[in-house]
Predict the 3D structure of the following.
Amino acid sequence: MKKAVQVVVSMMIIAVMSGCGMSTEDIGETVKTSMQETLSTDSDLQEYNLKVDNVQVFKKNENSYKGLASIIYKGSSHDITVEILVDGDNVMWEAAPGSFMFVAQEELQNLFQ
């Protein structure tokens, strides 16, 4: 598996935000922006042109949320789950290991064609 996929799988990004008591929509937009920045600027990830289409957020408990991120890759949408923690001004997200396996699968298929 390419290093780029491994980086995303274990990545955590912290985005500073203002205010507290954010709505799930605000959290989703913050995670979407952070994810897209990571996918667009990381030298190992840029080549895949991954686009974050949407992040839906569901509250689990006081500071913990589960997100469903729709990622567009080569015209197809792939849903991945992300764990999200919100602590006052900070939002942290993490994609589960294997979440971006669809990239590696597509790249392998292209090699064999």
